[in-house]
Amino acid sequence: MSSLARRCCAEMLGTGLLVYFGAGAAAMTLMIAAGTDPATPFNIGIGALGGLADWLAIGMAFAIVIAAAIYALGSVSGAHLNPAVSIALWATKRFPAGDTGAYIVSQLIGAAIGSLLFAASAGMDAVTIGGLGATAPFPGISYGQAILAEFIGTFLLMLVIMGVAVNSKAPPGFAGLVIGLTVGGIITTTGNIAGASLNTARTFGPYLGDWLLGGNNFWVNFPIYVIGPILGAVAAAFLYDYLTG
Amino acid sequence: MKCYICAQMGKSTDAVAICIICGMGTCMEHTIRREVDVWEGGYPFPAKKLPKKIPRMLCPDCNASYKEG
User: Which value does ipTM take for this structure?
Assistant: First the structure.
């Protein structure tokens, strides 16, 4: 097994790629849609160009980069790319506590680097218009509803990870593709509720980038993306163990 | 079973192994034993190399191909 330092580098790299390409796709959609008249109060730019197809496009960007990162880095670090996944594997005694802490720090740093690199690539419009693809509850969505949507989305994601990757009876080779597409599907359906982050690091990177580069301050929403994803992933892992026990 | 390579050279030698890749019977002289690494894990866990290796019996041609990757 690679050393912890190398595995942490892999987690940093994978999460950085996820945020650059995934959250970057959300920022880019907002930049392209800038100036269009919103047709409904739910529309903040994403959805203005093609309705739900905008979310499908963002979901596919996430799906592809997650699959790529899992296939590229899965054997090095396990490619969790998500603190909620690391915590759920730790909570079910599948992953050591020390490694879990190191992985989470690496994922957060990687996400921040990914976001800052996207701002450096796309320019300040990515911050002021695109918000670096930060997630937040959409108009009319309460704090509690946002946490529930993140809980349910991450619950499904972790359930699929348990079924196609952790379960040794699962057919090998499909995990990256299936998990990527699952994230893409969840984003398509629940993106317009609270952004469908499903991942504390994915939200942390754009929040930090926006805050450092003079964009919006979204930190008041951060607990949504800590509580919802972590509880959802842990609940799914325990439920899976109960169902297969 | 006889050794295929020896048979090509007009000799009759009893085979002691079968190449795991091509199935050729080989005598002691033409059998190559390789120790292959075994890995455990992979997504969502880091893969780790197990201390134990798996023996593989190969003929000279398959061994050469194996070495080239």
Answer: 0.71
